[in-house]
Amino acid sequence: MNCTNGLVSVITPCYNGSRFISETIDSVLSQTYSNWEMIIVDDGSTDNSAEIVDSYSKKDGRIRLIRQANGGSSKARNHGIKEAQGQYIALLDSDDLWKPEFLSEQIDFMKGKNTRCVYSSYERIDEDSKECLSPLICKRSVCYKDMLVRNYIGCLTGLYDCSVSGKIFLHEELKSLRDDYAYWLDVVKACGVAYGNQKVLASYRVLQNSTTGKKKKLIKTQYDFYRRYLKLNPIVSLFHTIQWGFAGLIHFSK
Fold it and tell me: Which residues are CB-neighbours of 62 under 8 A, at least 6 positions away?
């Protein structure tokens, strides 16, 4: 496939993200690695998100604004991935942040491991951008079999080289629920193995109304993902759902 060598395409879906989008963009602008493009897909926002992004794009040509009718985060991400020109693909939501050294560290780490997919540890911050829970230290490496148990890759920390296996897209039929899990499953399957940089290189924002924070309501969704999407048998699906739920309780109690 045709892609620009060394360029990182940062894909950011945005729906009514005016409260945090400036901080997210600023975290990309502050990167010590400067060879990037940031494609922000406004997913039919009713606030002034698009206007904020447009003001940034006029100041820095690496930032692009794409508008679409509301279709969900997976559709917005796919729209951005289709437009991406980079060798590397990264997903960064409109309320999450990267440390200034994120891209430089991850690209060096990828080259050092001679791999095509990497991720990292990350901290958890609240709506005021203050650390609210202890950092999540990532697993050192994962293969597809590991990922069948649960998603070990923090979406905001994943980076993969699409120059070999091509672009990978999200499953829009999942309706933005577990779509990031399915995406990283597909990436790891294509790459063989992914390596985790244990340095804390990103900040995941924990919102009171966030989907991730409502674990109890997602139990059936998680079970259905294992059973219907991954085609696992009922016993294995139940076992993995229990593991996933237990891990979630630990992660959000620290």
Answer: 36, 37, 38
* Residue numbers in the chain where pLDDT is lower than 50: 211, 213
How many CA atoms lie within 13 Å of 36's alpha carbon, on the beta-carbon side?
Answer: 27
Give the pLDDT of residue 213. 47
The answer to whether 97 touches 27, Cβ cutoff 8 Å, is yes
Q: List beta partners, residue 123.
A: 203
Alpha carbons 7 and 24: distance in angstroms, whole number: 19
Q: Which residues of 128-158 are buried (b: 16+ CB within 10 A; e: fewer)?
A: eeeeeeebbebeeebebeebeebbbbbbbbb
User: Per residue in 125-157, pLDDT tens?
Assistant: 999 999 999 999 999 999 999 999 899 999 999
pTM of the entire predicted model: 0.92
Integer angstrom CA distances of residue 112 from 31, 67, 159: 20, 37, 14
Give the amino acid at 247: A
63-68 and 131-136 strand pairing: unpaired
Distance CA 119, CA 158 (A): 4
Q: Report which secondary-structure segment, H or E, holds 40.
A: strand 36-43
Q: Give residue 100's pLDDT.
A: 98
d(CA 138, CA 135): 9
DSSP string, 124-186: EE-TTS-EEEEEEPPPSEEEHHHHHH---S-GGG-EEE-TTT------GGGTTSSHHHHHHHH
Residue 90, strand partner residues: 10, 159
Residue of 181, 201, 180 lying closest to 121 (CA atoms): 201
